[in-house]
Amino acid sequence: MSAPLLVLDDLRKSFGGLRATDGLSLDVRPGELHALIGPNGAGKSTAIGQITGEIRPDSGRIRFDGAEITHLSAARRARRGMVRSFQVVQLLEEASAEDHLALAVQARQGHSFRFWRAARRDRGLREPARALLDRFGLDPARRGLPASALSAGERKQVELALALALRPRLLLLDEPMAGLGAGESQAMTETLRRLKGEVAILLVEHDMEAVFALADRVSVLVRGRCIASGAPEAIRADPAVRAAYLGEGEEA
C-alpha cells in the first residue's frame, strides 16, 4: 500500500469556547476518493480550512507528500498541488466558460492574467480549455455564455474543470452536490466517478447516496472528532455512526 499523500495528526482548533476540531487525525492516499461526512457543525469546513492553510490550527500537524506543511501559507500549499472548490461557485459573472478555462490553462503555464485578450485568441489556450469542457460535459452551445447565464449545475461543471486545469495532486471538494437538482447531482456523481484514481480527492458532502456510491473510504466527524473511518459498507453498518448521524434522521 502506498504512503498517504495527506496526513492530519491530532489537529485542534477552537473559536472561543467552541472546539471546531478536537484531536482530528486522518489520511488521504494517492488516487483515493475519501469522503468526510458529519452533521452540520461537526467541523468539516474548519478541517478543510486547516488543510488548505486558510485556518491555522491551534495544535497538531499536517503533512503533504511526506513534508510538514502546517505553517505554510495557502498559496504555497496550492503551489504544491492542493486545489479547493467551494459550496458557492465563485466565477467571473461576465466571463464565459471558455474564458475561465483559457485563463486557468494560462495560469498553469505561468503566464500573467494581464494578457486577457491574448488568452481569448490563443489557440494554445482555447483548445485545452475546450477539451476540459468536453470532458465535463458542458453543452458546446452554452460555453460562450456569460457565467451569470449558466445553471447551478453548469457553474459547478465549470468550477470542477477549472480545478482540474491546474493539475492538482489533491482536490478538496466542498459539497459539490449542494444546490443541484436530481439530474444534475447524478451527472456530477458520474463526473467524480470518472476522476477516481486520477487525482486524490477529499470530498465533503451531505448527499449520502453520492458518498456511498463514490467513496473508497469514509470518515465521520462529530463535534470535531473522527468517530469512525473505513470502507463505506463498514461505516454504513457502524452502530456509533448510525446513532450519531446516519440512523437518527439528523439533517445532513
Taking pLDDT < 50 over at least 5 consecutive residues as the criterion, the unreliable ranges are: none
- Rg from C-alpha positions? 19 Å
What portion of residues belong to β-strands? Answer: 15-25%
- CATH C-level category of the largest domain: Alpha Beta
Describe the structure.
- Helices cover about 40% and strands about 25% of the residues.
- With about 250 residues, it is an alpha/beta fold.
- The protein folds into 2 domains: about 1-80 and about 170-250, Rossmann fold, CATH 3.40.50; about 95-165, no CATH class.
- A hairpin with a 2-residue loop joins β9 (about 215-220) and β10.
- α5 packs across α6 (about 150-165).
Give a short summary of the structure.
The protein is of the alpha/beta class and 252 residues long.
Features:
252 residues, alpha/beta, Rossmann fold, 2 domains, 10 helices, 10 strands, 38% helix, globular
In terms of topology, how is this protein built?
Layout: E1 6-15, E2 18-28, E3 33-37, H1 44-52, E4 59-64, E5 67-68, H2 74-79, E6 82-84, H3 97-108, H4 116-121, H5 123-135, H6 152-165, E7 170-174, H7 182-195, E8 200-204, H8 208-214, E9 217-222, E10 225-230, H9 232-237, H10 239-246
Parallel strand pairs: 3-8, 3-9, 6-7, 7-8
Antiparallel strand pairs: 1-2, 1-4, 4-5, 9-10
